[in-house]
Amino acid sequence: MQRELYTKILMKDLDLVNSTGQKADKVRLLNVLMQLRKCCNHPYLFDGVEPGPPYTTDQHLVDNCGKMVLLDKLLKKLREQGSRVLIFSQMTRTLDILEDYCMWRGHEYFRLDGQTAHDDRQVSIDEFNRPGSSKFIFMLSTRAGGLGINLATADVVVLYDSDWNPQVDLQAMDRAHRIGQTKTVRVFRLITENTVEERIVMRADMKLYLDNLVIQQGRLVDQKSNQLQKTEVLDMIKFGANYIFRSKESAIKDEDIDEILARGEQKTSELNEKYAKMGESNLRLLRFDTEEETPDSVYIFDGEDYRTKQQNSGALAGWIEPPKRERKANYAVDAYFREALRVSEPKAPKAPRPPKQPNIQDFQFFPPRLFELLDKEIYAFRKSIGYKVPRNPDAGPDGERERQEEQAKINDATPLDDAELAEKEELLTQGFTNWSKRDFQQFIKANEKHGRDDLESISLDVEGKTPDEVKRYARVFWARCSELQDVDKHMAQIERGEAKIQRRAAVKRALDIKMARYRAPFHQLRIQYGANKGKNYTEEEDRFLICMLHKLGFDRDNVYDDLRLAIRLAPQFRFDWFIRSRTAMELQRRCSTLITLIEREVVDMEDKSKQRGPTSGTATAGAVGGPGGALASSGVGQKRKSSSAITSVPVESKKVKA
């Protein structure tokens, strides 16, 4: 099963694997690499691979994975020797499979990963290190269990899979090399032969030798060589693919555990000797070849170099094609020369304008009559210099007609008389000449922030302008905003801000209604969760979040940072690690969910009140004044119990008996 799944992953992205390093997408290559690593760990990491339903935990859990076959034999031998084992894995889902295996084999174990609570973590470590402890295995995720843990009572470390960073694996090994260790510590690294895992381990070992070279010789090595390139990822994926496809064996060999361990020790010593021969140039480039003929080439198999040998047997023989050099045309020849010829054409000259024209912006809202006089002045100037409107070759079929109309305006133009000149000067003083582009942008942002009706707040945000100036500009702006060039953009910006203001007002109203229904909301408030009750937050925590959010001010800046500080200072949460460790962003998301529930509750309450009508004042008071009935939450299905032992009864409204 494992070999078949490995082959399917390679075949699925065959085009990507056969592509050149430049053509291949690094993200896709890393995805293929990750899928191959999962396959090496265990095929059951893929959905739908495990036989079932019904799903059973028996021998197939071991037989379908080479690492599990070896681990099963190794653990049996270690248990007979009286050893205790630490098993590290990168993937928590792999730990799930190992946990099923331990329960099936009857191995007593502890598990520690990133989801383990701090208290449970320390209890497990203390129990494992206790003299006479019956626990045989301690399973840990490499990242969560690699630091700050003393497990000196274990004398065997099993690295189920390897990390890209060799220092992480070294930290994991050091969990057993602690003060108080009295036995010889043995480390076993499980590697699936002829797969990407071999290349990953090789690269990690090269990093260790590179680090050794830098520290011992005091030399600096180019940091870029440590970055994984696309071609290197491609080589890792291709490594061993020929062996996988040409292998005729469908089952894993049933070898003796001592033979497997001896072969592993021999291969490790060979690699160490090979690394010792490498020079600094090899380490700089992280190359795996030495002065000898490269034995690690992906094309050398069974002592033959298949780069020079033509293979005609087998449907998949030679499926990994050598990359071909292709000349890419990044341009269309005809389009390129067409654009090049067009560039050489002289551009049409701009129409001349009379000197000393006033700089007029659309947001200054000058009278429309001024633009008529300015256009008349421009046409008269062009007529005085004998300007002819040029033909535009790129214009459509109406281009000639438009050119003739423009030329007719120039031919019929007359200069401004004295009355029109005086009128122009008068009109130039009637616009908002003291409003700059910066002032206009501040005005738009202030409208977005406060809404178009809050002129007092808007005037405070527009620097250098008095409230009267801002109010006068606002009246003209809303009357003539259609004259602006980017009117749609500005209106959309303001409307988005006003929608946020309305949303804040609706939320504030819902919170006010909810809080007004309780005399002591910090103890009595109830939330109708329905199907949206989370598994992490308790009802006491949600109650505190809503009440404190209302107290601090929902629409205030940095309110969630202040809410986080209030949680840290609240005495009822001094031992509640979960709520104390939430970030401001996480608190905001939780409060948004609770606010949605409260808004829905208020809407339902108002709808019921409208349906009943104002026939009975007591009924209305009961719906608004008391938190009883359907508005009380049962709190069923909570995962974590509240740390508070306080119980309170909501204040019931008085009802008149019929």
UniProtKB/TrEMBL annotation:
Keywords: Chromatin regulator, Hydrolase, Nucleus, Phosphoprotein, Repeat. One of its GO terms (cellular component) is ISWI-type complex. It comes from Mesocestoides corti (Flatworm). This is SNF2 family N-terminal domain-containing protein. Pfam families: HAND, Helicase_C, SLIDE. Residues 398-409 have a biased composition (Basic and acidic residues). CDD domains: SANT, SF2_C_SNF. It is found in: Nucleus. Residues 389-413, 606-658 are annotated as: Disordered. Residues 430-482 form the SANT domain. Residues 70-221 form the Helicase C-terminal domain. InterPro entries: Helicase_C-like, Homeodomain-like_sf, ISWI_HAND-dom, ISWI_HAND-dom_sf, P-loop_NTPase, SANT/Myb, SANT_dom, SLIDE. Belongs to the SNF2/RAD54 helicase family. ISWI subfamily. GO terms for biological process: nucleosome organization. Gene3D superfamilies: Homeodomain-like, iswi atpase, ISWI, HAND domain, P-loop containing nucleotide triphosphate hydrolases. Residues 613-622 have a biased composition (Low complexity). Its main location: nucleus. The keyword Nucleus applies. GO terms for molecular function: ATP hydrolysis activity; ATP-dependent chromatin remodeler activity; DNA binding; histone binding; nucleosome binding.
